[in-house]
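Why do we care about 3D structure at all? Because function follows from shape, and shape follows, mostly, from sequence. That is the central idea of this module. The next example makes it concrete: a single protein chain, its amino acid sequence, and then its structure expressed as tokens.
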Amino acid sequence: MIAPLTKIKARSWLAFMALAGFILSLGTLAFFPVPDGNRELFSAAMGGLNILLGALAGYYWPRGNPPAPPEA
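And the structure:
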């Protein structure tokens, strides 16, 4: 039986899949010409992946002081 994912494992898999998608899309841009009909769609998808990677990087490497834990 497969064990359920914990929160940190699920977030790590999401980060891995987003990074893999970004690398594959960059490889597509580098080695294959994007048809004119799909250029706008591909640009929008690249922008979405860029935003997702930025959010994941902010989660794994936060800037500044960490927030204080809530008091009970």
